[in-house]
Amino acid sequence: MKNSSQLQLLLLLLLLVLSAGTSVLAQDARTVRGYVTDRATGEVLPGVTIRVEGTRLGAVTNKEGRFQINDVPLGPVRLRASLLGYANEDVGITLFADGPSKDVIFTMLPTGLQTDEIVVSAGRRVQAVQDVPISVSSLTQADLVQRGITQVDQALRYVSGVSVVGDQVNIRGASGFAFGVGSRTMVLLDGFPLISGDNGDIKFDVMPVGDVERIEVVKGAGSALYGTGALGGVVSMFTGSPTEELKVAGRLYGGLYTDLRHPTWQDYRNGTPTQWGADVQASQRIGDWSVNLSGGLRSDQSYRDFDEQLRGFGYGKVRWEPTDEQRVTLFALYALQGGENFIYWRDLTYATLPPVVQDPTERLWTAKFATAVEWQWLVDSRTSLVVRPGLYRTRFENRSGGVTKDSNQSTSYAYNVDVLLTTSLIDRLTLTTGLTGRANVVDADVYGEQLQTIVSGFVQAEVELPLQMTRTAGARIDREETQTLEPQIEVSPKLGLSWEATQELNLRASVGRGFRAATIAERYANIRYGPFQVEPNPNIRPEYSWSAEVGARYAPKSWGVPVEFDVAVFDNELYDLIEPNFDLTDPSVPITFRNITRARILGAEATVRCALSRSIGIETGLTAMLPRDLLLNEPLKYRNNILWYSRGSWRFDAGAVGLELQAEYRFQNRVEKIDDRLGIFVPNADQRVPSHVVDARLFADLQAVTGYPLRVGLLGRNLLDYYYAEMVANLSPTRSVMVQVEWR
């Protein structure tokens, strides 16, 4: 009763805040106009983002480099201009009640350094990165295109402090490896969660990578704003908006896996395994309407037997903007994948072959569909409201000889609704409040018919203090209930402080709580998976964490070349972690999911980015961690101590052809501890080594030669053909070489 009363009180307070925010009267305001030019050439710059600091107001320059921002509040304001490849430019102005509209001219200095200047995910609103009290890393569409990314999880491997094992995203060691269920990282597309309703896992194949304009990775507990699943962090993807002119893009790629060096690993091959894919995209804005459409195919014969996959996908987004203050967006996506089902190797001698008992006619089919509507209303210059309902449906089934196996199929529906209000009731105070609801409806032979509901409310306040300091405080309360089990209440607070000490140095500190409710799969799974018999355990408590960090970002302006340093030290305290537990006293060797771990991860992270010139750039990031299981006083399972990533790029001309050469290196030290009991069922399950992965790409821009927007690339992945296993008893991808042709 006490928990229920607390929930009702918080929801009532949030509703009052929502009502108060939408009733705020419009403030006296003025219009700001202007244009932006390149300081070196004097040419106008289209596509520049102009933002009014401390508000949600902003604009993007048109083809003539001009912009206009309406309803800018009176008094002193700061405008910031940002564009990829240019240094940010700030201008301070003062607007008076009896004065005219303001005209502003920006001149921007070219630089080869890509900055992470604007972020959205850390506070669920548009902010400058120096105002955010937690570590955030970003990838742009240019990063994805340059790397030839065909699936989002490939891109995340190039973010400092992040590793990926299968579909599990591991941010600073928080996730480990959870055997395909219960993601400890929240993943969103344009604010809509893409976590399945049954397994609570990530499905990377459904995400429209070609339409993604930006990916933000928030490192540290994010449940105060995002609820369950954000125990270790948040990955947010944002799709692009169409321009006035029709944009068409296409991509074809094809390649092969090179021969393996071990003869016993080649036994299954009848020829050289290949991979290929095709994408097409189109977008345009016409009046108040804009449309994005895309689709593609992927085929991969794999570097190992019984692992061939074929996938098709499509994505569409329609936006209607009847006024400058309101817009409605509808998106839908669908992905269908079918293929063989490699679970683990036969043994290390035959690492490319499945176990002898594997049914050669078995195929795994998955289908995913998501749709959501978003209504945005800019009430006035201080207040905005977003309402976002949606649905995410997933289905998987095993087929043998073309017939579905009754014992291994699941269909889940995840219904979501999100109401978000951002308002500045008074100067220097911004409130972000919201209500969310989620219902997971599952019909499965594996889990039975199940219903899980989560109702949440949250509030966050950001206060601008003297000396360019910003304090953040907030909390979220979640009520989770599954079927007839007792409801569980989770309260997730957060505190943060950011300080722009100088124009070159920004300091930050934060502490917050994260949690993850047990998924339907973890509570009710009753299935044999290979040699493992998984049994239900409905009485699992939520797992939770406390995450704290102190960090600094330093970008000296007097070094002669653009350079940026980012350092952080962090502490992740993990409680009641849900892990699969082997019962070796039972002859059938059942596995149940239980709360069995109390752990701590201490670490430090450093990233350096530098543009030696407009054509040469380098970047490196090192994360060092000490993950400990405090109950057993031993290393925490499935975690690395060292993650190191480095990248270099060089753009140059060869006659009329523009060339770009890129090279990247990723290192992960050997995982010190896994579950030793796996070796009872899987031969050589304990075999693991450090990973050293080198990727390289050479792109040629042929537009000047052909007169068409063509780019051709030669891509090599794992060029050293280094053999390692990120996932237990699974050989990681071996060397592959591809040719890619793009039309943009």
Question: How would you describe the overall organization of this protein?
Answer:
The radius of gyration is 26 Å and the shape is globular. By secondary structure, the chain is mainly beta. A hairpin with a 3-residue loop joins strand 25 (429-444) and strand 26 (448-465). The relative contact order is 0.12. Mean pLDDT is 88; it is low at 9-27. The chain has two domains: 2-108, Carboxypeptidase-like, regulatory domain (Immunoglobulin-like, Sandwich), CATH 2.60.40; 118-743, Beta Barrel (Maltoporin, Chain A), CATH 2.40.170. The chain is 6% helix and 55% strand. The chain contains six helices and 41 strands. The strands form six sheets. The chain has a 22-stranded antiparallel barrel. A five-stranded mixed β-sheet has the order 10-15-16-13-14.
Would you summarize the structure shown here?
This protein is mostly beta strands and 744 residues long. The protein is built from six helices and 41 strands. The protein is 6% helix and 55% strand.
Keywords:
744 residues; mainly beta; 2 domains; 22-stranded antiparallel barrel; 5-stranded mixed beta sheet; 6 helices; 41 strands; globular
Protein topology:
Layout: H1 2-22, E1 29-38, E2 49-52, E3 58-60, E4 66-73, E5 75-82, E6 89-95, E7 102-108, E8 118-119, E9 127-128, E10 136-140, H2 141-147, H3 152-156, E11 162-165, E12 168-171, E13 185-189, E14 192-193, E15 212-219, H4 223-226, E16 233-239, E17 247-257, E18 274-286, E19 289-300, E20 309-320, E21 326-339, E22 362-380, E23 383-400, E24 403-426, E25 429-444, E26 448-465, E27 469-482, E28 488-500, E29 505-516, H5 520-524, E30 527-529, E31 532-534, E32 543-554, E33 563-582, E34 590-611, E35 616-629, E36 634-635, E37 642-654, E38 657-668, E39 691-701, H6 703-706, E40 710-717, E41 736-743
Parallel strand pairs: 1-7, 13-16, 31-34
Antiparallel strand pairs: 1-4, 2-3, 2-5, 5-6, 8-9, 10-15, 11-12, 13-14, 15-16, 17-18, 17-41, 18-19, 19-20, 20-21, 21-22, 22-23, 23-24, 24-25, 25-26, 26-27, 27-28, 28-29, 29-32, 30-31, 32-33, 33-34, 34-35, 35-36, 35-37, 37-38, 38-39, 39-40, 40-41
